[in-house]
Amino acid sequence: MSLSNTIQQALYMPFNRDSWSQLRNAVPLTLTEADLSELRGINEKISLSEVTDIYLPLSRLLNLIVKAKQQRGVVLNQFLGQQAAKSTYIISIAGSVAVGKSTTARILQALLSHWPEHPKVDLITTDGFLYPLDELKRRGLLQRKGFPESYDMKLLVEFVSAIKSGIEDVPAPLYSHITYDRLQQTISVRQPDILILEGLNVLQTELDSPVSIKRPFVSDFVDFSIYVDAEEKWLKQWYVDRFLQFRSSAFADPKAYFHHFASLADDEATKMASHVWDTINGPNLRSNIKPTRERANLILKKGENHAMEQVLLRK
Ligand SMILES: Nc1ncnc2c1ncn2[C@@H]1O[C@H](COP(=O)(O)OP(=O)(O)OP(=O)(O)O)[C@@H](O)[C@H]1O
Ligand SMILES: CC(C)(CO)[C@@H](O)C(=O)NCCC(=O)O
C-alpha cells in the first residue's frame, strides 16, 4: 500500500458515492426550480445527480459544523459576559489547476446561502494574491505562476487574519484570466457569515516555499478545509479541454493576454496546452499541491467526466 493510502486510512472515514448520498436523507432537502437554474448558471455541465448525491449531503454537513462553531461562540460569550462579536467562518478549497475548485466553490456558495443560520456567503479566490505580472517578470517567475513563490503570501495571511479579526470592510485583490494579471480594483469583504477561500495554495505553509519566512499559515485562520482530488490524467485532459474552449471565449477578447491563441487549430492548441501542463501545472501539482492533500478535513475524489467517486472525511 502506498504511503498516502496508509495515511488516508489512518486519518479519514471513506464513503463511496452511494453511502455518501444517503447522508442527505436524515434531513430532507429539496431543490426548487429557482435553485436549479441558479446552479445551472454556474456551470451547465454540472449534473443534477452530482448536486443531490454529493453537494446536498456536503452542505448539510457544513451547516452542522458551522452551527456548532456558532454555538461555541455563544457559550464563550456567556462565560466572558460579553456581547456576541461577529465572526466569519472560513472554508478553504484546495486542489490542482483545472480540477474544478471554482465550480465546487460556487455550488457550495449557492447551497450554503440557503440556510437561515448563514445566509451571507462570500467567495474569494487566491488568484488575486498572485504577484502582479510586472512583479512576476521582475522576479523571473513568469513560467512559475501558481508555484508557492508566485503568491504574495504575506498579503494573503494579512487578508485572512483581518477577516478573522472581524474588521468591517476588508479589501481583496482580484485577478483577471483575460489580462492574466491582477486588476486595479479590489472587492470588499464585509463580515460574511461564511467566507469560501478557493485556491491551489490554501493548504500550503511557508515551509513549502523555497524561501521560508516565519509567519502564520493560511490554515491557522481556516475553520474547515476541502481538497478536490483527481488523477493527473483527468486533470491534464480537463486543462486541455478548457484551453480549447477558451479560444472562443476568454482568448477571443482582443485585450486577452493569450489573444494570439484564439486562432489556433485544434491540434496546435492541444499541443500548446499539453506543453503548459507538462512544464508548469503538472510539476506544480506533484511538488507543491498534492503533498498538501492529507492536511484537508475533507477530500472529494473525482473520476472521469468530473463524477465524484469518493468522499473522505477526517475522523
Ligand atoms: N462538476 C463538474 N462537472 C462538469 N464539468 C466541470 C465540473 N467542475 C468543473 N468542470 C469543468 O472543468 C474545468 C475546470 O473547472 P474550474 O475552472 O472550476 O477549475 P479550477 O480548479 O477552479 O481551475 P483554476 O485553478 O485553473 O482556476 C472547467 O472547464 C469546468 O467547466
Ligand atoms: C492562475 C493560476 C496559477 C491558478 O488558477 C493558473 O490558472 C495559471 O495561470 N497557471 C499558469 C499556467 C497556465 O497558464 O495555466
Please write out the topology.
Blueprint: H1 3-11, E1 12-16, H2 17-21, H3 33-42, H4 48-80, E2 89-95, H5 101-112, E3 121-125, H6 133-138, H7 153-164, E4 170-176, E5 181-189, E6 194-198, E7 224-230, H8 232-246, H9 266-289, E8 298-302, E9 308-314
The structure holds adenosine-5'-triphosphate and pantothenoic acid.
Any overview of this molecule?
- There is one protein chain.
- The chain is of the alpha/beta class.
- The chain has helices at 3-11, 17-21, 33-42, 48-80, 101-112, 133-138, 153-164, 232-246, 266-289; strands at 12-16, 89-95, 121-125, 170-176, 181-189, 194-198, 224-230, 298-302, 308-314.
- The chain has a single domain, classed as Rossmann fold (3-Layer(aba) Sandwich).
- It contains nine helices and nine strands.
- It has a seven-stranded mixed beta sheet with strand order 1-9-8-7-2-6-3.
- The structure holds adenosine-5'-triphosphate and pantothenoic acid.
Strand content: 15-25%
Label the structural class.
Answer: alpha/beta
Low-confidence stretches: none
The major sheet is characterized as: 7 strands, mixed
Count of spatially separate domains: 1
Per CATH, the class reads Alpha Beta
How many β-strand stretches? 9
Q: How helix-rich are the residues, as a percent range?
A: 40-55%
SSE succession: HEHHHEHEHHEEEEHHEE
Mean pLDDT: 93
Bound molecules: adenosine-5'-triphosphate, pantothenoic acid
Quote the CATH topology: Rossmann fold
Identify the strand order in the major beta sheet.
1-9-8-7-2-6-3
What distance separates the N and C termini? 20 Å
Shape: globular
| CATH architecture assignment | 3-Layer(aba) Sandwich
Work out the helix count.
9
Find the CATH superfamily: P-loop containing nucleotide triphosphate hydrolases
